[in-house]
Fold this sequence. Notes:
The complex is a heterodimer of chains A (about 325) and B (about 325).
Chain A: E1 2-4, H1 6-20, E2 24-28, H2 43-47, E3 52-54, H3 59-71, E4 75-79, H4 90-97, H5 100-103, E5 113-118, H6 133-137, E6 143-147, H7 150-162, E7 167-172, E8 181-183, E9 196-199, E10 204-208, H8 211-227, E11 231-235, E12 238-240, H9 244-254, E13 257-264, H10 269-280, E14 290-294, H11 304-310, H12 314-326
Parallel strand pairs in A: 2-3, 2-4, 4-5, 5-7, 6-7, 10-11, 10-13, 13-14
Antiparallel strand pairs in A: 1-8, 6-12, 9-11
Helix pairs in contact in A: 1-7, 3-4, 8-12, 9-10
Chain B: H1 15-40, H2 54-61, E1 70-72, H3 78-83, H4 88-95, H5 131-143, E2 150-155, H6 162-173, E3 178-184, E4 187-188, E5 191-192, H7 205-208, E6 213-217, H8 221-236, E7 242-247, H9 266-273, H10 277-287, H11 293-316
Parallel strand pairs in B: 1-2, 2-3, 3-7, 6-7
Antiparallel strand pairs in B: 4-5
Amino acid sequence: MAEKNMVEAINDAMLEEMKRDPRVMLLGEDVGGGGVFRATQGLRDEFGPDRCFDTPLAESAIIGVAIGASLNGIVPIAEIQFADFIHPAMDQIVSEAARLRYRSNGGWGCPITVRAPYGSGIHGGPYHSQSIEAIYGHVPGLKVVCVATPYDAKGLLKSAIRDPDPVLFLEHKRAYRLYRQDLPDDDFTVPIGEAEVKREGSDITLITYGMMMHHSLKAAETAQDEDGASVEVIDLRTISPLDKKTVLKSVEKTGKALVVYEDNLTGGFGAEVAAIIAQEAFEFLDGPVTRVASPDVPISPYAGVLEEYLLPNPEKIAKAIRDLAAY
Amino acid sequence: MVSVRESPTELGLSNDQLLDVLYKMMLSRAVGQRERMLNRMGKAPFAVTGEGHEATQVGTAYALVSGKDWAFPYYRDIGVALTLGQTARDLMLEFLARGENVSSGGRNMPSHFSDPKLRIVSGSAPVATQMPHAVGTAFAGKLRGLDEVSMVWFGDGATSKGDCHEAMNFAGVHKLPVVFVCENNQYAISVHWTKQMAVENVAVRAQGYGFPGVTVDGNDVLAVYGAAKEAVERARRGDGPTFIEAKTYRLVPHTSDDDDRRYRSREEVEEWSKKDPIPRFQAYLEEHGLLDEKTRDELAKKAAQEVDAATEYAENAPLPDPETALRHVFAE
Lengths: 327, 332
């Protein structure tokens, strides 16, 4: 066992996968020097500049070249420096990577992993803070993972690299150095498409992912201590494909559902979760399916007071828990 | 512009190969014409073909080793697909969206060629998107120490796209074995090239990416082949990319849904019909004693028969099973 924070766990996952499989390579902006978050630290020294490859500053080419390389015996990990910068590559991700297998009737596959730090909370301003998961979670043919713990990050990144299809791997940057966790020394993976109950409870099911999972756990503790409300917290971990089974099983037990996400409220991924619960667990519900999310303004402004005003936090989540418990 | 060669065999093609080049051009024409006809007969909702581009398509693809080198055609490249080994039957099955068509099983629109065993990679409709893919396969080949070449075809409109720039820059910086082929037919649907680029020959842009660009007469199949052969040899020996601009003309509307009378005068189309690459190559071969009327007629008959047989087969082939629409979203 070794104590690792999330960014170290991600680095270890890539190191171990590149050692395990000589086809695995990393490409992106500044990855050779270790990357702006140091996620790729040491990989160029270990594997050389061809396998830890500094690309020109061009996101569409990073993804497009990764797609092409994946057709010719390479297993690419493409890093987009910030999720906010991914939009020029959206065409390559949505219309190319995610559709290649379908449009060729299974003739071609595209085993690429696209890593990107996402999310607010580091005073990143409007272009280093975005949550993009809902945009991509809508796209068939693409798997979308959102991680916020060292263990999940390492295990899911390994699964993503080994996956035969394109995976968008979103790393909540506020969680990179949030805390350390003991990780097994042996090789382990976390399967894509499996949520995890991070805290058991009986009164309310709280469904979340990313940094909001940490805030939700705090809020659940507060609600337990102050109001005696027992909240079950589910970390989706994978947005697409969604683990409906774990969500519905919990809602059937508690009868109440609170969906918490950092993204803007309207059309956020939590809206899909809420719709599934409303449709498939209707007869078990004992209160309105409720969402806590950021208001519909471009998150996140640079000044701390503005950012904090917009983002969900443990206090706002605890209030929503109280309201729903009282319903 | 690279000009027509003095001797037909100067480029290393045998007499049989020269006739094969001609046949592939004639077959491409016959397939395109048949597809448009079937569309007009109401047998297919859409046709996009490349009549007029045959010299450019066959001449470039002929320089590749099919199944070894990588091909990234765009939606007009019937001649590329046929030259690399797809058959008229493959194309008719694709055109009529039959279940057994290798390109897409009825998912993609016609002329979106794909054939894994021939390394023809499935493409999409948004232009230039396939250019970084070609760079990617070349990049992988270089990393793996292989001597494969990637060739990517696109129209003049695609040169305006960001993906064109990003792909050419990436290929130039890393000296990758890619051949960029611009089939410059002077119109991006209805928009004339003068509204697309501020230079007379878009091949000059290659200089800005650090590799050679050549402009060739795209209706002269040997000039095209000569440029492609040189570019492929250059790529294979590790000297990096080449940009080939083949100036040509689309003798038909953009697609079956387009009426080119809106934007091109009949006089202009008539003028370019006189430069049709197929009769031009036939005349050239006749002039050099490599083709006579009898052989020419036999080739025409053979192409017609091949397209007839392909059409008949495809019309009788089953449509895709509707439930297959749910398959192949992810690996199975």
